[in-house]
Amino acid sequence: MVVNVLLTRRIQKAIVDVQESGETPKELSDRLSEYCSKDLDGNKDKEASIEFSLVREVWQLLKKNSFRSGEDKLIYLHELLEGSEVYVSPPKPPERNPELVARLKKLQAQQDRLKYDAMVSNLGPKYDAAKELGTEVRTTSKQLSSIFNFLVSIAAAFVFGFIASQYAFPNLGMRVIIGIIMACVVAIADIYFMARTEI
Q1: How far apart are CA 59 and CA 62, in angstroms?
Q2: CA-to-CA distance for 100 and 142, rounded, in angstroms?
Q3: Which residue has the higher pLDDT, 64 or 43?
Q4: Mean pLDDT for the chain?
Q5: Quick one: pLDDT at residue 71?
Q6: What's the farthest any 2 CA atoms get from each other in the chain?
Q7: Where does this polypeptide localize (predicted)?
Q8: What share of the chain is helix, strand, coil (3-state, %, to 5)?
Q9: Mean pLDDT, to the nearest integer, of 77-84?
Q10: What pLDDT is attached to residue 45?
């Protein structure tokens, strides 16, 4: 398994030093040349990582060059890797099932439609012509039957007073007055009961 580490400026400088020494094998030099000019500002990207095996080879070449040149300062591998860390590539998100995506879109459209219907449910006329017409006809017929009943009751009371008084009073005028009084009493009673039940 290939282990990558983050490319730091120290590792990049070591690569440049190894390249300038001229003792780097051609194949290794070709592999290292791509890391010399990398921009390290975004060092969390895949481009800013380097294989650990390459870093170790660079370190071994640096160690060999320092022995040859007689330098006392020897750089250790852990010093070369200072500031770097193991590079872990971010996991790829799994691809979504196309059927699931289509179902989610359908469900989202249904939810949006339900929300829209709920928002506009109290807008616009709520006029149902058939229902309103039926209510008006029932109310009108009830009122007409009340008026008809009121008039028939008054007329019946007048007729009853007029005919019943003919045995007591032979005078026509007195019979009409008694019929009117009876009609008025029944009219007042009807108005009272109509006011209590219909208002």
Answers
A1: 5
A2: 61
A3: 64
A4: 82
A5: 59
A6: 162
A7: Endoplasmic reticulum membrane
A8: 70, 5, 30
A9: 81
A10: 45
CA distances in angstroms from 58 to 43, 80, 181, listed in the order given? 20, 10, 131
Q: Which two tokens stand for residue 185?
A: 């009493």
Residues contacting 49, CB < 8 A, separation 6+: 4, 5, 6, 7, 87
Do 66 and 46 form a contact (C-beta atoms < 8 A)?
A: no
The dihedral through the CA atoms of 63, 66, 70, 72 has a sign that is negative
Which position has the token pair 């990582």? 49
For the record, the structure tokens of 10 come out as 């120290």
Strand order in the sheet with 86-87: 49-51, 4-6, 86-87
pLDDT, tens digit (0-9, with 9 covering 90-100), for 3-62:
888 888 888 888 888 877 777 787 777 787 777 777 666 544 445 788 888 888 888 888
Q: Are 84 and 15 in contact (CB under 8 A)?
A: no
Contact in structure between 66 and 58 (CB atoms under 8 Å): no
Residue linked to tokens 């790829």: 92
